[in-house]
UniProtKB/TrEMBL annotation, chains A, B:
<dbReference type="GO" id="GO:0009231">
    <property type="term" value="P:riboflavin biosynthetic process"/>
</dbReference>
<feature type="domain" description="Bacterial bifunctional deaminase-reductase C-terminal">
    <location>
        <begin position="8"/>
        <end position="193"/>
    </location>
</feature>
<dbReference type="InterPro" id="IPR024072">
    <property type="entry name" value="DHFR-like_dom_sf"/>
</dbReference>
<dbReference type="GO" id="GO:0008703">
    <property type="term" value="F:5-amino-6-(5-phosphoribosylamino)uracil reductase activity"/>
</dbReference>
<protein>
    <submittedName>
        <fullName>Dihydrofolate reductase</fullName>
    </submittedName>
</protein>
<dbReference type="InterPro" id="IPR050765">
    <property type="entry name" value="Riboflavin_Biosynth_HTPR"/>
</dbReference>
<dbReference type="InterPro" id="IPR002734">
    <property type="entry name" value="RibDG_C"/>
</dbReference>
<dbReference type="Pfam" id="PF01872">
    <property type="entry name" value="RibD_C"/>
</dbReference>
Amino acid sequence: MTKLRVHNLAISLDGFATGEGRTFEAPFGHAGMRLMGWFFPTRTFVQGTGHEDEAVGSGTTGVDDAFAARTHHGIGAEIMGRGKFGPQEGPWEDLEWEGWWGDEPPFHSPVVVLTHHERPDITLGETTFTFRDLPPAEALALAAELAGGLDVRLGGGPTTVREFLQADLVDEMHLVVSPVVLGRGVRLWDGLEGLEEQFDIASTASPSGVVHQIFTRRS
Amino acid sequence: MTKLRVHNLAISLDGFATGEGRTFEAPFGHAGMRLMGWFFPTRTFVQGTGHEDEAVGSGTTGVDDAFAARTHHGIGAEIMGRGKFGPQEGPWEDLEWEGWWGDEPPFHSPVVVLTHHERPDITLGETTFTFRDLPPAEALALAAELAGGLDVRLGGGPTTVREFLQADLVDEMHLVVSPVVLGRGVRLWDGLEGLEEQFDIASTASPSGVVHQIFTRRS
């Protein structure tokens, strides 16, 4: 049975998952890299992105990496919102933009990008991006088919995750709360009153200062 | 040197410290007791309120009580917002309301209640409530004098805590994040962007499901 899983969704103390003013130069807006500081030192990030070198070593293997490493286990496809693919809004002005990730995106699987403005597939390395205008349940059905029996990762951003939570389609969600008050941006929690009734919620504090929270859907 | 300390300030995952629709029957509005569930079993609560009996025993002494017990250590006075004293708004219609706590309030110290509508002092047991219309720094000066060299507790609610944080008067703050999405009520975090620059922030998860967070002002 395919599960829909959220991993490494980083939020601030005040619940913002991305900052205000996203641009090509500032993918997280005014948040900068403050929500992801816990992730970059991990072995999962360093080795997954090929950043391994003498300066950074091979990455940490502590609490943060234990959670980060689950990101890729048993995943056969990803669903992401258009905002994660790029900061553009409205119709595509050109098709030159192929995402933030260069020639070898770290997904290594099919990726369904949800957008009202469909465009042809893009294949980069082992990753194929497919652009579709679908409601959550149909997007999940497509991604599950592409995943070939493995799980589907719901990659964000916050607006997309919120829509799938509201549709009660999320099986597991891993949040990472960073000790930062962003003040503005896109909130994860809006419109989710009573979410705790659908999930068991467990928390672990990491020496890095973040708190990992795992939401597991009650069966 | 008198410190201003916040203890046991319970908030939801989405940052609400109290619910919507506060009344005499529902002191926390629609939040009910959901934010305080971790506190009631503790020895600090059970013994401090005289609820100790055969049914509840003498209270738990685990992680939650370790934090709760700090509430009373070295405190000589409390500051609270008028909303914590009662749900009324505007001028007092009568002076019969003397707070939620009966003849023996658990403060055992002077309490400065901040209100635009001053009224005569009330003494109940070892607690005297003094009603003043003062800005944060002056309220702290008064409470520090009443505390006689001990620390001052900032007792809430969220609007009051936020005002003292904005005035950079808080030395320590203990938050308790409950795994609940309230959706509406009074937020703690509004207007506090960048608060992390003033504090060291440490988190510990409790087996009860809450996360304790300690903010310590950088010297």
